[in-house]
Amino acid sequence: MPQRLWKRCMEFKMKTETGKFETYYIDKKTGTAHKGACSEQFQTFLNEGTLLVKNNESLNNLPPVPGLLSYREDNKILYVNKGNIWDAIGSKKEIQNLEKNINVEFQNLKDRLKKIEGRFNEITRKSCKAILAANTFAISGIYSIRPAAGKLFQVYCDMETHGGGWTLVYSYTFTNYNSFTSGSNAVTPRPNWPAWRANVPISTTPPLSESSLGAVDWNLWKNIGKVLMVKSNINDWIVCQPNGGSLVTKTRASMSCQNIKNVATACSGVAPKIIYWSYYGPVLSGPSAFYYFDGNTDTNYPTHDPCGKK
């Protein structure tokens, strides 16, 4: 329960009907106002402290001094004078609830600041995986990365699939999807990876969504990461760890791959075992082509076979 904080005389002035100001002081024992100034033995403090009253009648007997605080014992509510009325500030329970709500909002603000800090820090990260490691609140979307000195650009980050942290480095379509096994069918566009007989357009423009087309400069892929994930709407999704072979360094050898989502109806759970390079683009094989990124419209076709067979 609040106690009177003032131990000296409280003095104030009120304007009369004639427009003059008259001085009053409050008796520190009774809390009642009296005309006149504080005696010289007291130091004057204007509107200092909180007055303790028993009930509403006692409250209304107090002088109407704006800003004056009073606490009623009967209902345990603190009031502030607003000139002609006493306005309830709140009960102890209400004040406690307000304090609780303020603490919750403060924590929410701290969480939001943490997210903002993560977004600011992302410009120094080299990949979506590094962004997610620095900011576990990160969600899928467009971020800025710096995989190499002087190479700051935007990419799309998948922060959900298979643990998240995937940088979209390549998104493609087909030149003749309706005649899929025709020699005129190829993936397009293609990254600037080694494929000297490929003839589809090259892209070095990062795709900023999974539905847009393009590719990050292949020379930067090795700085972004070595683990490969392929998502498709016609073939199973796979994740491949280097096991001698690598897509980012053009190394023909085995890879440790797993099937993370069955999209096709045949050969459930099959995954590639090796990677090699043809004149037209890389091939993930197991034992035959599983994913063939054929970039030539004159021969072959871009195999997407869940059974790893042509």
UniProtKB/TrEMBL annotation:
The keyword Mitochondrion does not apply. NCBIfam families: GGGWT_bact (NF040941). Gene3D superfamilies: Gamma Fibrinogen, chain A, domain 1. The keyword Disulfide bond applies. Keywords: Calcium, Disulfide bond, Lectin, Metal-binding. Pfam families: Fibrinogen_C. GO terms for cellular component: extracellular space. One of its GO terms (molecular function) is metal ion binding. This is Uncharacterized protein. It comes from the Eukaryota.
